[in-house]
Design brief:
The structure is a homodimer of 352-residue chains. By secondary structure, chain A is α/β, with parallel strands linked by helices. Chain A is 26% helix and 23% strand. In chain A, helix 2 packs parallel to helix 3 and helix 5 packs parallel to helix 6.
């Protein structure tokens, strides 16, 4: 991957860094066969204001608090710098985008280095004029960019007009080393696609972070709200189970109409019509067996803490060894859009 | 696929057959864009005896009852002809296997034709001396074999010594037409692999049937039982969500030590040592949004009935259109065993 400048440190270097930081998270004897290393993650569920600078300041405050509580890796929600602006299509909103590396990664890198934490930050990336991505950056505990992931699956449905704003990612799925462990980043809509979780886990990710902006249409909430939240949590828990990894869904909270204050001080007058979106919070951490080990409320800002235990990953995968039995000889047709019944096609197994 | 004799009828033929049968399940006007067709499935959760003939007779009785209750397609549990014999490795047990087509498919075919139902039957297939499969046969409502699926993912862990008995399937993943609808068959361990569900759904399956034999080790049940059942149900519900299809898990129930009466009348004296396995029942049907719409108990024989509503599949997929957004350009590495971090590799996206 020609992604110069974005390569993470080696895990060994990262561990040395962690030792420098004087923490006592290290239980690992690297000479043993089973890795007993543990680290803590902090999931920031937050509410967004119309002013991006205020949101950024709030995010910094939350990261500091998560670090104070013991988090080694802190994940912020999707596009935390702004209200969820994709509720309508407006070309002025591309002004929110920024380069990566850029102002946000520079400031968050400094913060990460100061606090000795890694940070997963979801940003609106301006790659070139007219070319924008929904991008998750992993900042290592020394402040360097360890990984850049560009959201691969882009939704588009009423009040989530993301195909207007975001070019689908072209860096593939990614796991990267941080000072504490190897993590995978995916973003929101990616969570509905088992392929993304699989391809990230196969790169050795110990945890999949899903910064997210998902909520209820107020008119649907009574009838479908519980089922929608449950489906969202269920499919992510299933990624944990299928792959024997931790999974974190990190969502925003609060009712928003997509109000955005741009750099010139104006608050855009095109507040999305209607009742807005009620972002459903409910951030959670699932263990490698799909058990919810931490969960936030649906209506408040919270910092969720959870422990990543590499021994539990090993134990879970030994007991239910799915990675051993995958039929990789038969999965190639997964690269097809549909296997139309009306057309003849070769078998996807090894028959002739 | 060179599987002559196993090709299903076209769906059109099947529908004609259904009309002949005089049912009133048909709401479809084939000229409209949205298919409003509905049909009923019956899931047989049953207990197994040492005598295969007694089990077969019980299965026939259950199929008759399911048909009487209105089921159009009836699914039996995995390897319903015997107690779960894979609790130990014993070459005499290969005597349980039979050809397909063979005695079971002949008798079940007659039953299907008589009752005008389709039947999904999981059988121990003898393909050649020394070559056996764990096979699910779909019998159409005219008695013909509509599809043969050989279990692709084979487990092997304490008391589930399946790799000794079953050669991994070589027919790939399959959806087939029946008189009532297009169905996919997978078997037990397959349920842990999102790839199998995806490849079956992409062939147009409206429902995935998972005949199953899964249970608790009595020593583990108190500590892990609830989480194990929950993980099992969760990952199958996730297949429903990811693919917008119905999913049926059809399990056996009861404590077994793998007692088997062979054709010569002897009951094998090698009853598996220890406390046996407690098959956990809990068969269920999930709708395309992952909601459980029917669920059986953990300790009793039951016939679960549920409706398959093609309009709900269409509606669910229109609302959360995951099939539209799959990144088929980036999924090819899913055919790899692992994407080892220590090796360089090309990106799985479209970057260079």
């Amino acid at each position: 991957m020609d992604c110069a400048g974005y390569r993470g440190q080696s895990q060994t270097t990262g561990l040395a860094l962690l030792r420098d930081a004087g923490t006592d998270q290290m239980g690992a004897d690297e000479s043993t066969m089973v890795n007993e290393r543990k680290y803590a993650v902090g999931l920031v569920q937050m509410r967004m204001d119309a002013d991006p600078e205020a949101n950024f300041a709030a995010a910094v405050k939350h990261v500091r608090e998560a670090a104070r509580l013991g988090a080694n890796i802190v994940c912020l929600p999707e596009l935390f710098r702004a209200q969820y602006f994709c509720q309508r299509e407006d070309i002025r909103l591309f002004d929110l985008a920024e380069a990566i590396p850029g102002p946000s990664t520079n400031q968050l890198g400094e913060l990460a280095r100061e606090l000795r934490v890694a940070i997963v930050a979801s940003l609106f990336e301006r790659r070139a004029p007219g070319l924008y991505h929904n991008t998750a950056v992993t900042l290592n505990a020394d402040g360097a960019i360890a990984g850049v992931y560009r959201k691969m699956h882009i939704p588009d449905d009423p009040l989530y007009y993301e195909k207007f704003y975001f070019t689908p990612g072209d860096l593939g799925f990614q796991a990267v080393d941080t000072a504490f462990g190897r993590v995978g980043t995916l973003v929101c809509w990616d969570q509905w696609f088992p392929e993304g979780a699989r391809l990230t886990a196969l790169q050795g990710a110990e945890i999949l972070f899903y910064p997210t902006a998902i909520g209820w249409h107020p008119a649907e909430k009574d009838e479908f709200g519980a089922a929608q939240y449950d489906a969202w949590q269920t499919i992510q828990r299933a990624h944990a189970i299928a792959n024997g990894v931790y999974v974190a869904g990190v969502n925003r909270v609060g009712v928003e109409h997509g109000e955005v204050k741009l750099a010139d001080g104006d608050i855009l007058s095109n507040r999305a019509a209607g009742p807005g979106l009620e972002f459903w919070g409910g951030s959670f951490l699932a263990d490698p067996f799909g058990r919810i080990i931490a969960k936030a409320s649906h209506d408040a800002e919270e910092i969720l803490l959870g422990e990543i235990d590499l021994g539990l990953i090993e134990d879970t995968r030994r007991n239910w060894p799915f990675l051993r039995d995958r039929r990789i000889d038969a999965y190639a047709p997964i690269t097809k859009r549909f296997l139309d019944p009306v057309n003849s096609r070769p078998a996807d197994g090894d028959s002739k």
